[in-house]
Write a structure and sequence with these properties.
By secondary structure, the protein is mostly beta strands. Helix content is 4%, strand content 46%. Strands 17, 18, 19, 20, 21, 22, 23, 24 and 25 form a 9-stranded mixed β-sheet that branches.
Length: 709
């Protein structure tokens, strides 16, 4: 049977390495050598567009350790970094954010910032009779409530104190005792608050020191000025532990674990009248047929209206084997009736329970869960961070996603401290590696659906994000979000390939894609206009293509190279010409646009689509390489397929304007098979890529007809 001494962990999603220096201030001139080499994530909190990341760092070379605060006021686009030792803060256990205030809790001390962590006021110390520590802090409007664990009589006794502030944390009232011997026997308390209503729970013995360990509850309806008498919500002779509490409107929810004949089961009681009365206990866990099961580390989360979510770890013991499973249930009637049990994690046999390293949060209809799991149970260092989500109020969940594996291509050994913080319809997921790399990673989940990387975080704590760059989630994450494999989007410099055996997508470099094709691992490179368009269509470049043309893998199938662009926009085509002739002067960089009238190609008589080349001529010098940038312009309202010809290219190339690739049929780009007259080839022409538009090999309809250009 597991010990009843529980580890209380802080449970608080685009990817970013928080390489943050350890010197004081804003660290404008920091260097890499000044960075803490050993880091640990403490807590993340998101509030509107504000994001707070609390972490610690230690540099073994300089023996400098610090607690650092990274703050963003633009949803993670840029950060500021503060070394909290500047304010005399050497350690931080927890932070809380409410309105314009940020509170840092260090043992029995609360320090407030009212300017997003740029500066801090004088610390407030909350002392009890013995060794005191703030166990929980909640801000509700201008009221701030704190519970304090106070160890007395040289560690032989324990009491829980309460203190309130009515001026946003500037001053606190003298702590009052809520629970004391014989009521409390374990170091545990938690709090919930809605406006002037404050609720506190603890585990402890009730009535006499020899009595049962119950779930103790007190409430205040006057901002913590006075409290009700103690109520034992378990109300039986069993041993109960690890209670959790949550409140929403008039509803109050309390869950706890209770020892039984086949392990520890999970129970819930709810109140719909601000804690005045509670309904009967509801058993949420399921007793096993064989072995024993502990329901550990419960989380209770209010949703919309009367919805409440409960998640917990079911730890099953049978034949000396432990199997850990993350379970979930929901109720839509205030906790009276619960739906079926949903398995979030899948069964995972593990040598150690990782339930205390689990983050489960809810925001309206969105529910997120992260946890640690061994991918190799033979080594305790091989730990991954897994993630699931629900966007329909906990009715269904996605399959688990390995955030480490899918962000970096290989597991990060010892990933730990997973945390999620919701912000409206968005959420931020964070974790640290805990290995020799000692890095912290952050990922954003937009609207509960899309994974978005927050790119570019340098050692000065400032963003180097290019606003025009589009960052896409990994192929697996896109698949889980319902995107078809052929429509997966890859980031700049990567190509989409499909595995030959099962058509699974992967984003790899162009040279890697070619090798995978040659080795038979991949069946094809898939090009789609959204995948390759990494910049806004109105943007162009004169220095090089934004999309580089990949190899032609359609082979002998009749096909054409098609250029795609939008109307009322400009696109550029980059062509490299190589001369193998002796110096004979220059050749014009000629180009033109045709239209197709039935089976005849005629030069375009209007300026609705134009093309020009720069430089206007190509030197015919042996061994010379010249890149000509052809600029295509389409006026507003133009739509259809036009035909482009370029210097030293035989035949015409289709340009599809305001036509999606998936809507372009083979008959739209016919390929006339037969005799054609081509100009004398004195240059090798190679299309490098495009900017402001995209290019794709498409299957064409073969037509037997001679034509000349």
């Amino acid at each position: 049977m597991k010990a009843l001494v529980l580890v209380v962990a802080i449970s608080v999603f685009i990817f970013i390495i928080l390489s943050i220096p350890s010197v004081k201030g804003d660290c404008t001139y920091c260097t890499v050598n000044q960075m803490p080499k050993s880091v640990q994530l403490i807590q993340t909190i998101a509030s509107d567009k504000s994001l707070y990341i609390l972490w610690s760092g230690y540099d073994a070379n300089s023996q400098h350790s610090a607690v650092l605060l990274s703050t963003s006021q633009d949803g993670g686009s840029s950060f500021k970094v503060k070394d909290l030792t500047e304010f005399g803060i050497g350690s931080v256990d927890k932070m809380q954010v409410s309105n314009e205030s940020l509170y840092l809790i260090s043992k029995n001390t609360i320090t407030e910032s009212r300017d997003n962590g740029n500066s801090f006021g004088q610390p407030v110390v909350l002392n009890g009779e013995g060794n005191s520590a703030v166990s929980d802090l909640i801000a509700s409007g201008t009221n701030v409530y704190a519970t304090i664990d106070d160890v007395i009589k040289n560690g032989d006794a324990f009491q829980i104190l309460f203190s309130a502030s009515n001026d946003s944390g500037t001053t606190f009232h003298t702590p009052m005792k809520l629970f004391g011997m014989p009521e409390t026997s374990q170091d545990y308390s938690q709090m919930a608050a809605i406006k002037n209503n404050v609720y506190v729970i603890a585990e402890g013995k009730y009535v006499t020191p020899a009595g049962p360990v119950g779930v103790l509850f007190k409430k205040s309806n006057d901002s913590g000025t006075t409290f009700s008498d103690t109520v034992d919500l378990a109300n039986d002779s069993s041993v109960d532990f690890a209670p959790k509490i949550a409140a929403s409107g008039p509803n109050v929810y309390v869950v706890w674990s209770e020892l039984g004949s086949k392990g520890a089961q999970l129970y819930l009681r709810s109140s719909q009248d601000y804690g005045q009365t509670f309904g009967p206990s509801t058993k949420l866990g399921i007793e096993p047929d064989l072995g024993t099961t502990d329901c550990d580390f419960p989380r209770v989360l209010p949703g919309d209206n009367n919805t409440v979510y409960v998640a917990w770890w079911s730890v099953h013991f049978e034949n000396q084997t432990e199997t850990d499973t993350l379970l979930f249930r929901k109720s839509d009637d205030g906790g009276k009736i619960f739906g079926d049990t949903i398995t979030l994690s899948g069964n995972k046999t593990s040598p150690e329970d990782l339930g205390h390293n689990t983050a489960v949060v809810a925001s309206g209809k969105n529910v997120y869960a992260m946890w640690m799991s061994y991918y190799d149970v033979q080594s305790v260092d091989n730990v991954q961070v897994l993630f699931v989500k629900s966007n329909d109020g906990g009715n269904t969940f996605s399959r688990p996603i390995n955030l480490d594996m899918n962000s970096f291509g290989s597991p990060q050994m010892g990933a730990q401290n997973p945390q999620i913080s919701p912000s409206g319809n968005d959420a931020y997921a964070a974790w640290d590696t805990g290995n020799s790399d000692q890095e912290i990673y952050l990922e954003k989940i937009s609207n509960g659906t899309d994974f978005n990387t927050i790119p570019g975080f340098d050692v000065n704590g400032t963003s180097n994000t290019n606003g025009s760059l589009i960052i896409y989630p990994s192929p697996l994450k896109q698949l889980i979000n319902g995107i078809d494999a052929r429509n997966i989007k890859c980031n700049a410099g990567l190509e989409l390939v499909l595995e030959a055996s099962n058509s699974a997508p992967a984003c790899v470099r162009q040279e890697t894609a070619t090798k995978l094709i040659l080795r038979g691992w991949a069946s094809e490179i898939v090009t789609n206009t959204e995948t390759v368009s990494q910049t806004n269509s109105s943007q162009t470049s004169s220095t090089g293509p934004d999309f580089k043309l990949g190899p032609d893998l359609l082979g002998p199938v009749p096909h054409r190279l098609v250029f795609f662009m939008k109307s009322d926009s400009t696109a550029k085509i980059f062509v490299e010409y190589t001369s193998h002739e002796p110096n004979t002067g220059t050749m014009n960089s000629w180009s033109g646009i045709d239209t197709e009238n039935m089976t005849n190609y005629m030069p375009l008589a209007t300026s609705e689509v134009t093309v020009s080349g720069s430089p206007p001529s190509i030197p015919l010098t042996e061994g010379s390489d010249t890149t000509v940038v052809y600029t295509l312009s389409a006026k507003e309202g133009v739509k259809g397929v036009y035909w482009l010809y370029l210097a030293q290219f035989c035949g015409l190339m289709p340009v599809a304007i305001d036509i999606d690739s998936s809507h372009l049929a083979p008959s739209d780009i016919p390929l006339y098979m037969g005799f054609s007259s081509c100009p004398a080839q004195v240059l090798d022409g190679k299309i490098l890529g495009t900017s402001g538009g995209t290019v794709e090999y498409k299957i064409a309809q073969p037509i037997s007809q001679e034509y000349q250009k």
